[in-house]
Amino acid sequence: MKFVAEREALIDAVNWVARSLSSRPISTSLLGIMIDVTDVITMTGSDLETSTKAILHAEISTPGKVLVPGRLLAEIARSLPAKPITFTLDGTRVLVSAGSAKFTLPTLSVNEYPTLPELPETAGRIATDVFAAAISQVAIAAGRDDSLPTLTGVHIDISRTTITLAATDRYRLAVKEISWNPNNPDIETATLLRARTLSDAAKSLVGNPEVIFALSQSTTNERLVGFISNEKTMTSRTLDGTFPPFRHLLPQESTAQATVEVSTFLDSVRRVALVTDKTVPLRLIFSEGSLQLEAGAGEEAQATEELEIEYSGEPINIAFNPTFLTDGLQAINTPYVHIAFTGANKPAVLSGKSAADSEPISSYKYLLMPMRYTS
C-alpha cells in the first residue's frame, strides 16, 4: 500500500474519523483508523456507538488496507510540514513522511476490526449552518451524568417539514424548531441521540452547504441516525429510553415580562457572580424599569449591580444558577433577551429579540428553573 496525499485534505479526513474513537475501547482494534486504499482512500473509525467515515482523494501507487493508531496518526498529521504526505505500508509498519520529517507507525490487527453499520436510508436535507446553530443552542441543556443516559441526549422530533430539538438536565430545558426538506413530506417520527455526538457532527460539518439526514426504518432492529456531508459520513446508535414530556412545561401565558440587552446583562451576571461559585444562586430583582443583581450573603463577599430594563407586571424576586443563566443568554444569539415569568418560584422562559421593541422569536426557548436563595 502506498499513496501521496495533500496535507490539509489528509488532516481534515483524519480529524473527522478520529472523533468517533474511544479513549478506553473494549478492543485494541477500536483505537485504530482503518485506511482502505482502492481507487480512492476510505478512512473509518468507531467506538461501536458512533462510526465515522471520510473519503480522501490522493495519488495512489499501490492499493491495500491497514489499521493504524488513530489519535497518534491525527497528531502526526497535524505536526507535519506543509508538504504532500506519503504513506507506505512496509510489512507490519507504516511509514509516514513529508519533506524531511519521517514517522514509523505500528499497525493493529485488521481481522479484529468490527464490521461497521451501513448508513440508514436518507430522510431529507437541511442547511448546515441552520443545523449547527440549532444543535449549539439545544445541546447546552443536555445532562452530563451518564447514569441518566436519556438526559444526555437531544430529542429529535420530526413532523413533516419541521424538526423540533429538545434537551434537558432537569434544571433547564432548551427547545428549538427548524425547517428542513424531507424526502417524504408526511414524515412523522422521533429519535434520541447523544448530545455530544450531535455537537461533534455539527461543528465538523460546517463549511459544507447542507447536511443529509438519514434514519433507520422503524421496522429494523438497529436504530441508527446518519449524517452525510460532502464526502464525510457519521452513523450513531440512538439512545434507549423515553425522553420526558416537555411541551407542557413551556407556559403559554406570563404574568410579567422583561426585555434586557444581552451583552450588558451578560457582563453584569459575570461580574456579580465573581463573589460566589457556580452552584450558588444569583439573585435577580425585577421591577418597573430596573433589574437588581445580587450575590453573596452574611460575612461572605457580596456584589450588587443595577441595570435599566423594560419591564411589565408585578415585581419578581427570583434566583438562578449563574452558569445556567449565562449559557441561556449566550445561546439566544440575539441583541436582546425576552424573559417571561409566571411567578417567583416557577420557571422563567428566555427567548431572543432582534430589537428592544420587536416581538420575541418563538423558534427558540430556554426554560430555567429558579433556585432557593438564602439571604
- How are strands sequenced across the largest beta sheet? 6-2-3-4-18-17-16-10-14
Tell me the β content.
35-45%
First-last Cα distance: 70 Å
Structural class: alpha+beta
Assigned CATH architecture of the largest domain: Roll
The named CATH superfamily of the largest domain: DNA Polymerase III, subunit A, domain 2
Q: Averaging pLDDT over every residue, what do you get? A: 94
Largest sheet properties:
9 strands, antiparallel
Radius of gyration: 25 Å
Question: Which regions are unreliable across 5 or more consecutive residues at pLDDT < 50?
Answer: none
User: What is the count of DSSP helices, taking H or I runs of 4+ residues?
Assistant: 6
Annotated CATH topology of the largest domain: DNA Polymerase III, Chain A, domain 2
Could you name the CATH class of the largest domain?
Alpha Beta
The percentage helix is 10-25%
Instruction: Give me the count of strands.
Output: 27
Rough outline = elongated
Number of domains: 3
Write a structural description.
The protein has 375 residues and is of the alpha+beta class. The model has no long low-confidence stretch (mean pLDDT 94). The protein contains 6 helices and 27 strands. Strand 8 and strand 9 form a beta hairpin. The strands form 4 sheets. It has a 9-stranded antiparallel β-sheet with strand order 6-2-3-4-18-17-16-10-14. The protein has a 9-stranded antiparallel β-sheet with strand order 15-11-12-13-27-26-25-19-23. Strands 5-1-7-8-9 form a 5-stranded antiparallel β-sheet. It folds into 3 domains: 111 residues, Roll (DNA Polymerase III, Chain A, domain 2), CATH 3.10.150.10; 127 residues, DNA Polymerase III, subunit A, domain 2 (DNA Polymerase III, Chain A, domain 2, Roll), CATH 3.10.150; 119 residues, DNA Polymerase III, Chain A, domain 2, CATH 3.10.150.
